[in-house]
Amino acid sequence: MADAYADRSYGSDPVGFGQTLGIIVVDFQKAFTRPGGALAGSPHIEAAVEATQRLLTHARAAGVRVAVSYVAYATLDAMPHWKVRAVKTDLFRGMPGTELDPRITAGGQSDYAFDKWGASSFFQTPLAAYFTRHGVDTVAVCGCTTSGCVRATVVDAFQFGFRTLLVADGCGGAEMRPRCGRYRAVIAATEGASLHSEPVARRQV
To answer: Per CATH, which fold does 2-204 belong to?
Structure first.
């Protein structure tokens, strides 16, 4: 697949960093990250949380704007038509699964944390306005799951005109199947760049 994309000039032009970086952390909440969580138990998500935690330590020290999204609903009728049963039972406001993982929130007193309705962290939320207000032109995306809400967030970041970076080791899913690699390859070839957390951190400190 990589050759087929390259042969057609996909990925030929770099995205690069602009003037001001912002970070969006997608859905690292207890339903996905903590023992007993309805959607938890993935070693890939666990590794991604740890990589994101390290990145956020550097980013916050450098004054980088950090936004953190989570999924929570008031009622079943307020949800879109999810095919994931655990979302319909464990992601109502006030339930433990909607709480952010403390490894992500530690040291983040100035982070912008908000709930979201759909897959993308940008969809019907003030996220784009928040980044624009603070002069952010480059968005690095971490979170879970890579093939779902992370992918949707990357696409919307691109469509809002941000330089878009996927933090590869800061994203995870239920399992590391070949399709996750394909999603990363497609993102790197079209909407953004796929980088590891260390180069992103070095760019900011």
So the answer is: Rossmann fold (3.40.50)
Q: What is the pTM of this model?
A: 0.89
Q: What is the dihedral of CA 71, 51, 195, 156, to 10 degrees?
A: 10
Among candidates 48, 20, 70, 62, which has minimal Cα distance to 142? Answer: 48
Where do the domains of the chain lie?
A: 2-204
Indicate which residue of 142, 149, 171, 180 is catalytic.
Answer: 149
Annotation says 149 is catalytic? yes
**Amino acid identity, position 76:** L
Rounded to whole angstroms, the Cα distance separating 44 from 57 reads 20
Most confident of 38-42, 50-54, 195-199: 50-54
